[in-house]
Amino acid sequence: MTSSDVPMIESLGAPDSQFHSLRFGFENTYARLPQRFSAQLAPTPVAAPHLVKLNVELARSLGIDPDALMSTQGVDILAGNRVAEGSEPIALAYAGHQFGHFVPQLGDGRAILLGEVMGRDGVRYDIQLKGSGPTPFSRRGDGRAALGPVLREYIVSEAMAALGVPTTRALAAVITGERVLREIALPGAIFTRIAASHLRVGTFEYFAARGDTEGTRILADYAIFRHYPEAAHAKRPYRTLLDAVITCQARLIARWILIGFIHGVMNTDNTSISGETIDYGPCAFMEAYDPATVFSSIDVNGRYAYGNQPRIALWNLTRLAEALLPVLQQEEGNDEAALASANEALATFSHTFEHFRLAGFRRKLGLLSEREGDLALVQDLLDRMANNGADFTSTFRKLCNAAASPESDKDVRSLFTDPETYDLWAIGWRLRQKEESVSGVDRAESMRKVNPAFIPRNHLVEGAINAAVERQDFQPFEELLDITSRPYDDKPGQERYSSPASPEESVTQTFCGT
Q1: Are 477 and 155 within 8 A, CB to CB?
Q2: Residue 409 neighbours by CB under 8 Å, 6+ apart
Q3: Residue-level pLDDT at 513
């Protein structure tokens, strides 16, 4: 493969040498990789950028002065109108399986990686602009983003972080002062995303599809350096890398399941090597429990339904293992041994996922020890919820009070179309609790730490987006951000944020922001 496989743009533009008040401290390791890994180019300037929201706390954790970011020069950087000192903007190359169909070249079609910074926690983070203009990977797209999808990603990614789920983060949202044409003309926006990295399963597929074993090895070594440095000292570093990614993905998908989250577009190019949730497109949170729940308008066959997510994660990881076979072969000595090693690693996923899932549901039910019948107890509750249309988040949150006092059973019963269905399950739950010497008050307190009172419910997200897009009213957006930033705290008087949608409010479809 030659560098011409990734088209290059000659001019990057120059940072303003007079602008020194805002320093990111970029340390750009990915830009040092061979040319075929990315395309160098500057973001496309916009007409009239205006800052909608800055994540001040996150900026400080990255060692970036939030006041400087909110200045005219800072907003220009967040809008792509200025290249910051030390930035080496690039669009990353990758491929991917989209709804099971392989596309050999995707890449950052509307995103540009500005560079990497070291956070105050000693971790390296990417700073990326989404909606920053066309790149060589745009495939005839405009490279822009509409305001609605930017606000959705901001709300949901920050809610996921508050819920304790590994995720990319929102640093800023900027209105561009331009319109983007989708079905209709919409206000344009740019989203600044922070990620542990933007390495994807699809990045490995990109080099594997080209028979570029050297590229695969360089990428694998980089992933080890970036995320799994312990693998560098292992006897079989590439197998150790595969094992680590499998474990992280199993843990991540279990966390999704435990909060009722549906990603909506689990393509391999949306599967992060770091184990973070990435690319919030038609994502949504389930209300009435049903494993077949789908919201994404493009997922017509339910491939990425809530209950299918573990299976799809394994499918995606299998594509990663296939892409790694050339370096596993070098490590194992022959093709047969490499294939056996890959399959051995993949065989651990289901057990690992189930371990994290069951451990999580035990905590959600206030069970502090392990018993053989716990899985059946969990599944029995879920089946009864599914048959009675019980709201997933509300059921587990109200169980917290029921753990402290059976008098609160009435609040849980009210969520079931047949309340006696809950009563029958609760008998077994309370018998199981008696096997542990924990007070009801302490049990309830532990449950409140893992059962959120608030999630970004779909109708609330849509309401906040519509208010911003249609009326330039960002107050609902701000209020929802505030509520979901502390999801485990009770907030008297804010019951509308914890209540399921009424029939007229219900959101049945979510849409990709491309």
Answers
A1: yes
A2: 402, 422, 423, 426
A3: 64
